[in-house]
Amino acid sequence: MKSSLRLVFSFSIMFFIVLVSVYLFLHSSFFKVDKIYVSGDETVPPEEVISLSSLEKGINIFRVNKELTSRSVEIHPMIKKANINRRIPRSIEIDIHERKVWAVVPANGNLLFIDNEGVLLDRASSAKINNYLIITMDKVPERITLGQVVNKDVVRMISPLIEQLSSDEKRHISQFHYHNKEDSLTIFTLNGTEIRFGDKERFEEKVKFFNNILLFEQQLNEEGRDVLKYVDLRFKGQPIVSTLLGSSTSTTQMPEVNIYE
């Protein structure tokens, strides 16, 4: 009995010594951070990222609060996600995923550059807009700061449409106009045709018409007999088509699309 107690006591002492040793080792200078570096950076200077993280050399690597540090870095308007990785024994990696400019919104004499979540990344009085989408709206917030969302609804409306269009179809679009009150969309082609897309109802059906509209527009232009004015997709069935030479109430029949395929 006594021998068993001595064995348990000895084991407990040894276990305690091991725990203390491990604790002291983990909190020793061996694990003091001597390198902090950033990965995934393209436009955001790594110095800014490290400054936002508030990490400093000399801190114990296991005392770094990964979640809190990630949130601190994600304050930057250009950073969508930040992951903090411990690189044992003495390095910390800050892996960031930057936001990308997805569209340009002209507003109040400025150009607002937003990502695919509607977050404002930058603004300028003039700039090269390259191949970015151009989105206009009936109403844009008068005051908005970097990192804030300009308009979530317009992104939810346009993003799934863009994903289903081919590269060639996208190239024919000059502008998207969002009607805030109606939560609807009007699309303008490079040739000036107005496509009244409407709201999200019958979304897939409307997308199927898109390529035919562009082909019909091209056909009329090549033949030189008329110019496509607008195509209205807001109602069920075949779209209402109006040409420039027709009266304001007349319509032209566009080649039909099988919307039930």
UniProtKB/TrEMBL annotation:
Main location: membrane
Protein's UniProt keywords contain DNA repair: no
Transmembrane segments: 7-26
GO biological processes: cell division
Assigned keywords, A-Z: Cell cycle, Cell division, Cell membrane, Membrane, Transmembrane, Transmembrane helix
Top-level taxonomic group: Bacteria
Pfam families hit by this protein: FtsQ_DivIB_C, POTRA_1
Location(s) in or outside the cell: Membrane
GO CC, alphabetical: plasma membrane
Residue ranges occupied by any POTRA domain in the UniProt entry: 31-99
InterPro entries, per database record: Cell_div_FtsQ/DivIB_C, FtsQ_DivIB, POTRA, POTRA_FtsQ_type
Name of the featured protein: Cell division protein FtsQ
Species the sequence originates in: Candidatus Syntrophocurvum alkaliphilum
